[in-house]
């Protein structure tokens, strides 16, 4: 998950008061884990409540001197996080927050917890203090006790941009959550909603190319201009179609009894589970095939509307639980 996406997810959870007690941020700590942990803490403690980065609370978080935002890292010489460090921080997590809100603790190098420290930490995870959250940072998950690992929500960080992000992803998951269940009429609505999103993407692609225009004096409306807008748009369109396919794969996984921790859309786990509950395994499999077909046809540049309608109206035969 891209750090921006992870940030959006966690902030959403915090606002809905559905924060997990501990998150395992898996990825390069310096480049991704630490900046992400700081941003999330700023969102939790910010005076304006939106992680402005400039208020006194946000600055204290960034400087690691906020009294409710604790940091633990391996000791310089031993390269181990000691039991005393863990006891100290867990004791403070059990006290009332200074600012009366959240308490957070970032554990850097979580794979460097010694055995005694890990066991002490496990006790805290078993009886987590209220309104508190731990962020465990590491790029080596093997170094963590399985019992600790299993009590954390995993956030696999990656810089890869080759997936649907940001507003497009939010728009798509919104559409799939509302209209992704049935076939027939529902499939038609879904096709129209996706066509609407594609239209929006095309406009956004043009706007983005226009913004880059000055660099090489590209003439708006010229052939080169059109080609560039189209290339951008098609790239995004394939990301969208791939995401539609991944949604169906998530459904298939859940229908087949798979776990929720490997979902492509973990932020929509509840909606996915609800939809999976209305599908048989066979129906979910049929939809994955249809979504893959739609992907291929879009790749071949066949007319969008026709591809969407043909692909989605067919879902009526997969709607509902068959005998
Ligand atoms: Zn702030």
| Oligomer classification | single chain
Label the structural class: alpha/beta
Order of helices and strands: HEHHEHEHEHEHHHHHH
Low-confidence stretches: none
Give me the count of strands.
Answer: 5
Largest sheet: 5 strands, parallel
Q: Specify the overall morphology.
A: globular
Give the ligands present: zinc ion
User: Kindly, what is the distance between the CA atoms of the first and last residues, rounded to a whole number of angstroms?
Assistant: 38 Å
Q: Give the percentage of residues in beta strands.
A: 5-15%
Q: Using only CA atoms, what is the Rg? A: 23 Å
* Sequence of strands across the biggest β-sheet: 2-3-4-1-5
Mean pLDDT equals: 85
Helix content: 40-55%
How would you sum up this structure, described in words?
With 323 residues, this protein is of the alpha/beta class. It contains twelve helices and five strands. A five-stranded parallel sheet has the order 2-3-4-1-5, sandwiched between helices. Helix 4 (83-93) links the parallel strand 2 (69-72) and strand 3 (103-108). Helix 9 crosses helix 10 and helix 11 (281-299) runs antiparallel to helix 12 (304-313). The longest helix has 33 residues, at 223-255. The two termini are 38 Å apart. The model has no long low-confidence stretch (mean pLDDT 85). The structure holds zinc ion (ZN). Residues 42, 46-48, 51-52, 55, 57-58 line the site of zinc ion. Zinc ion (ZN) binds next to helix 3.
